[in-house]
Amino acid sequence: MSHDTDPTHVADSPSGETGASAPGQHPGNDQDTVQPESGQAEATHPRVQELETALEDMREKWLRSEAEMQNLRTRTRREVEDARQYATQKFARDVVEAAENLKRALGSLPPATEGEDALITRMREGIESTERSFLGILERNGISATDPAGHPFNANHHQAMAEQHSDEHAHGTVIQAWTPAWTLHGRLLKPAMVVVSKGATPAADKPAG
């Protein structure tokens, strides 16, 4: 007896599964999925550090530049101010000579006495009034005079013209000032010409009494 074979019959596989895949499934994709490579993010990390370092360097350079510019502006402003205040220094030095001449003119007059000549009295009063007015003008323009008599000698502001013994003044004290110390806005314009004490007179030099 012969057996008919159905041409449409598909033989089962040895494992009992059919050779066709289930709808919606693709061979070989049951468990495998594509994952992003974790090393990609790590590879950019050194680059980020490099950029951050460069940014910090630029920031420090900018801060230093700003500090230098501020110092330059301050120095320039101070130099301009000094130039404005002390531009007349040579002229001021000549002007104080006139003030000292007024003082010398007063010193050349005889001491005021009762019953003195009216002409001398008016002359003295006129010179004193001129001197006061002149000194006021100088002070308004930053020029001032200081009498160092009785103060310790200061080589930065005084010029010693002579030394002598004095029982009333300690060693190194200014006994007398021939001229005052002149300053322009606090800066020395002309030193005072002074006589400085050498201390008490030695016993051997004192006259016998």
How would you concisely characterize the structure shown here?
With 209 residues, this protein is of the alpha+beta class. It folds into two domains: 45-87; 89-203, Head domain of nucleotide exchange factor GrpE (Nucleotide Exchange Factor Grpe, Chain A, domain 2).
Q: Residue share in helices?
A: 40-55%
The secondary structure category is alpha+beta
Largest sheet: 3 strands, antiparallel
CA(first)-CA(last) distance: 182 Å
Write the H/E string, N to C.
HHHEEEEEE
Under CATH, the topology of the largest domain is which?
Nucleotide Exchange Factor Grpe, Chain A, domain 2
> Would you report the number of β strands?
6
- Give the CATH superfamily of the largest domain: Head domain of nucleotide exchange factor GrpE
CATH class of the largest domain: Mainly Beta
Whole-angstrom Rg:
52 Å
- Can you tell me the residue ranges where pLDDT is under 50 for at least 5 consecutive residues? 7-24, 26-31
Kindly give the count of domains.
2
Share in β-strands: 5-15%
Region (Disordered): 1-48
Subunit structure: Homodimer.
Family: Belongs to the GrpE family.
GO cellular component, one term: cytoplasm
Task: Report on the architecture of this protein.
GO terms for molecular function: adenyl-nucleotide exchange factor activity; protein homodimerization activity; protein-folding chaperone binding; unfolded protein binding. This is Protein GrpE. Keywords: Chaperone, Coiled coil, Cytoplasm, Stress response. Belongs to the GrpE family. Homodimer. It is a single chain. The termini are far apart. Strands 1-4-5 form a three-stranded antiparallel sheet. The chain contains three helices and six strands; from the N terminus they run αααββββββ. With 209 residues, it is an alpha+beta fold. Strand 4 and strand 5 form a beta hairpin. It is elongated. Helix content is 44%, strand content 14%. It folds into two domains: 43 residues; 115 residues, Nucleotide Exchange Factor Grpe, Chain A, domain 2 (Roll), CATH 2.30.22.10. The longest helix has 48 residues.
